[in-house]
């Protein structure tokens, strides 16, 4: 396999929203006759089904699997992009053509959480505006343009399980301004609201978002150089940039977040791609830990891809000559968070240690501080002041301001500190999203 062929196979690999299927472009041995291939991932062993049509595909075609097993393909030609749904039909490949989008550059967005809809960004020829398209809703309807947004837009991360709130990055109409992450409400005529603004003039991008826990993985140069950080939707605390995510001589890129951890972002395991002088390999990390754990990548790893199960199993797709459709399963060697120490009560005698359920709900302490115990009603300890020099300890601390984060019924979330509503409950009054962080960073970094 040539380097260019391996690159196409890696870059085209996409997993369905529920992890049941995957799809990629592959080629016949010894040729560059490309065709789509669908992987089934939810069985005891993965297996691949080829989906060739009458003519070979171009290497720059894009594929995206739906949760029902069909594969969306976007074929680029001069000045337009044609779309179709492919599916196995006996020994042949069935094809349902959907229509075309007039554009020179169309990019499929990550699969929508519902598993049946697919969206795309289409850049207009002048480059000063970008269109948002619903390219399929699972039916035979043709693609529909939802909105035209001024500027150059990129990225793409889903903020809720309904597939309504989409985070996109924009650099302004001319592409020369600082990059910001904006929330786009697909259910309200693509109304936009600021989401991530860390410092004046900084380039801030949202890389991954987990709708269950609210965990966000971002990259920003606000600390003085591009760094990987994390934050939480609706949290009072701003983005944190731990040293563990900034190793010298390597670059970390998040590729998957463990789902199924409502209101527990510190317990979400994160899979990372590590690029360094020695090559590319896997690593895992959790916001509650101070170090990254490096793993030996399986042979033939489709670098940059992986998925988590809710119970913490990391599944890594790989392809070799002897096993072209493989899925390595591993348990991330991440320790559980330390048991929080108790806080003495006002009475002379110290209270007993919290029960296991209370310890699991204890709030995580900022980097550099010992763990805090879970609040014991009716006493509520005052929030501890952030340590000196901690770049994560920015503003909103004892300032009396509103919590930073994406709040309100536009996202259907109340995850702010102190909220007693169940996860996913709607606010009574609809409010626009609030930027995750707007205060400038201090000059020093931790």
Describe this structure in words.
- The protein is mostly beta strands and about 450 residues long.
- The chain has 2 helices and 26 strands.
- The protein has helices at about 5-10, 355-360, and strands spanning about 15, 20-25, 35-40, 45-50, 60-65, 70-75, 80-90, 90-100, 105-110, 120-125, 130-135, 145-150, 155-160, 165-170, 180-185, 190-195, 205-210, 215-220, 225-230, 250-255, 270-275, 280-285, 295, 305-310, 315-320, 325-330.
- The strands form 7 sheets. Strands 1-2-3-4 form a 4-stranded antiparallel sheet. A 4-stranded antiparallel sheet has the order 5-6-7-8, with no helix packed on it. Strands 9-10-11-12 form a 4-stranded antiparallel sheet, with no helix packed on it.
- Mean pLDDT is about 80; it is low at about 340-435 and about 435-445.
Number of DSSP E strands: 26
Rg (C-alpha, Å)? 23 Å
- How many helical stretches? 2
Low-confidence stretches: 339-435, 437-446
Strand count, sense and barrel status of the largest sheet are: 4 strands, antiparallel
Q: So what's the overall shape? A: globular
Q: What share of the residues lie within helices?
A: under 10%
Structural class: mainly beta
- Give the distance, in angstroms, between the N- and C-terminal Cα atoms: 44 Å
């Amino acid at each position: 396999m040539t380097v260019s062929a391996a690159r196409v196979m890696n870059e085209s690999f996409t997993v369905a929203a529920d992890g049941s299927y995957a799809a990629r472009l592959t080629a016949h041995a010894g040729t560059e006759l490309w065709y789509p291939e669908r992987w089934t991932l939810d069985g005891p062993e993965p297996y691949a089904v080829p989906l060739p049509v009458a003519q070979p595909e171009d290497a720059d075609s894009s594929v995206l699997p739906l949760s029902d097993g069909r594969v969306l393909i976007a074929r680029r030609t001069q000045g337009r992009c044609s779309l179709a749904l492919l599916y196995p039909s006996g020994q042949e490949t069935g094809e349902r053509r959907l229509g075309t989008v007039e554009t020179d550059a169309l990019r499929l967005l990550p699969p929508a959480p519902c598993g049946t809809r697919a969206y795309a960004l289409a850049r207009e020829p002048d480059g000063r505006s970008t269109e948002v398209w619903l390219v399929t809703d699972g039916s035979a309807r043709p693609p529909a343009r939802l909105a035209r947004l001024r500027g150059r837009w990129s990225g793409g991360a889903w903020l809720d399980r309904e597939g309504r709130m989409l985070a996109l990055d924009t650099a302004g109409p001319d592409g020369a301004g600082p990059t910001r992450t904006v929330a786009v409400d697909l259910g309200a005529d693509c109304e936009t609201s600021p989401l991530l603004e860390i410092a004046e003039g900084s380039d801030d991008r949202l890389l991954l978002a987990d709708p269950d826990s609210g965990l966000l993985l971002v990259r920003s140069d606000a600390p003085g150089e591009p760094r990987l950080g994390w934050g939480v939707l609706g949290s009072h605390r701003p983005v944190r940039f731990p040293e563990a995510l900034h190793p010298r001589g390597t670059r970390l890129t998040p590729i998957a977040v463990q789902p199924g951890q409502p209101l527990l972002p510190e317990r979400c395991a994160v899979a990372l791609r590590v690029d360094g002088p020695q090559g590319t390999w896997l690593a895992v990390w959790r916001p509650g830990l101070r170090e990254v754990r490096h793993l030996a990548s399986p042979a033939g790893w489709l670098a940059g891809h992986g998925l988590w199960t809710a119970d913490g199993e990391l599944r890594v797709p790989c392809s070799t000559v002897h096993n072209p459709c493989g899925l390595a399963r591993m348990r991330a060697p991440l320790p559980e968070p330390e048991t929080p120490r108790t806080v003495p009560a006002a009475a002379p005698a110290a209270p007993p240690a919290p029960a296991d359920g209370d310890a699991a709900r204890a709030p995580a302490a900022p980097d550099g501080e010992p763990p805090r115990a879970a609040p014991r009603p009716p006493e509520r300890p005052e929030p501890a002041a952030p340590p000196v020099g901690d770049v994560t300890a920015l503003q909103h601390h004892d300032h009396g301001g509103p919590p930073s984060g994406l709040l309100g019924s536009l996202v259907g979330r109340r995850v702010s500190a102190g909220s007693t509503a169940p996860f996913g409950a709607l606010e009574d009054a609809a409010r626009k999203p609030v930027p995750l962080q707007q205060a400038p960073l201090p000059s020093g970094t931790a």
